[in-house]
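Table S5 (text form). Sequence records supplied for joint modeling of the two-component complex.
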Amino acid sequence: MAVLGIPILEDLYPSTMDMWPIEAKEFNRVWPFYENLKQGRFTTTKCKDCGFVAYPPRVICPECYSENLEYVDLPKKGKVMVFSEEVKGVPLGFQSPLIHAVIDLGADPVRRLLTRIINCPAGALKQGDEVQLTIFEIPSIPIEKGKAGTIMAERVFFAFEPVKK
Amino acid sequence: MTERRACIVAGGQCKWGVREAHLIDLFQEAAKACLDDLPTLKPKDIDGLIVANSYGGRCSFQVNIAPVVAERCGLKPTSICTRIDVLCAGGSTGIILAKGLVESGNADIVMVAGGEKLYTPQRWEVFYSELASIDHDWEAPHGLGLPPPFFALTAMEHMRHYGTTKEQLASVSVANYNYAADNPKAQMQKKLTLEEAMNAPGVVYPLTLYDCCPITDGAAAAIITTEEFAKKLSDRPLVYLRGAAQASLHSVSANWPGEHLADWIHMRIAAKKAFERAKLEPHNIHVAQTHDCFTISEVIEVEELGFCKKGEGGDFCGSGQIEIGGKVPVNTDGGLLSCGHPFGGTGIRQGTEIMKQLQGRAIHQVKDACFGLTHNLSGLNAEHTILIYGREPVK
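The corresponding structure-token record, covering 560 residues in total, follows.
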């Protein structure tokens, strides 16, 4: 974690430059999404007043501005509508091939979800293939908790992978 | 009181490319190039500064950049001094805001300066920083920082729905590279043949090297003022800011508003509004600078702007309609593909080129050009910004 050679950063890690979300409830009011993800659930917020389901989850309903929301499950399987494969020049932190796809999970508001496809070799994916949610751990980040000291907040994120035929 | 009408009276840019210079150096070079274009205007005459910059906070650890730019450029603004961030559309947004300020009487002579210093001492940081360009928590974690994968998906959708070919995409890079071959400020200054473009190394299928604009350090600046001041400052033909619009309907791709990724309804909405405000129609436009971050972008933009029918952008570009003598010459100074794309600087470069076209002093001059247009898309195609310029004001 240390940035050697830059004195102020030796043994420090600037978490605000992290490419992953800061998911902990101390810093994020949509933390239930990530807690649900840890349980294998792919969820978003639904308005209990007007019924509008929004993705990504949020803290107000974008239709009626109600704060009376609940988390509901989204489908975890979908079909590939279009995809791209990046083999060379993959960004830092990702492995080649970096595959992106627009997938249709079959229900609003996730008829056109842009996602990474993992566990899939280059050249194997086809349009129309079925893919499923896959959840993986990402590095924990340190969060200062006053007298309780610094905790390491565990994190997960998601992608999709081909369904084994 | 007579109506105050905004005009663009001067513009200039520094050399764009991989620059051995600090962000604030680039802004000084741009401000000088801008005032060199209008020697009657002195720094003390400028009462407003709008700085378009997105990556100062990240790449130069400098936020609140406007007073820094003002001081180093010898400006002492008393009407407005601020920074805006709309990434790729920052420069055009600055021009739109300056129009509002001068027309409302809240400022008289505004410098709109935009630019970025993206290359950092460790080059990997450029690519990492790009993750900040899009919705951080919902799309960046999918590795979507640099946009080639997204525009590759867009190109595949356009090919599937409309039969657009790789050769038609390549024709855009050939046209735009050839426009910039004699532009001394451009990042890329070389002629390109269709054969070279077709045989270029792959980036993300179907996009190859010349389909993608480079990463660029650079800055540009322009002066927006009233018709009255413009007449005092210059004998050149007046170039009015006739109308503008900026539309954003979504951020996360799941909420994409079109039928598919090659259907840019948010751009059509922005275009309709800008044309209404300018009291013009697409067929009135003589020259345009559209946001060719990728060749496929220009193909779709000429459609959504109404220069041709939806789905015929590939044919429009491939048949030379974007070249001098064509129906609407596009990106006549080389566009993003060849000039480069220092996000906040791009809209100002485009506005400056349109000003020169309408004043009859462009390098690749479109004969008798009276009405011109600039367009930017920004983020992961999350927003569209359109400005329409004219030799005559809206009546």
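Note: The two ends of chain A are 41 Å apart (CA to CA).
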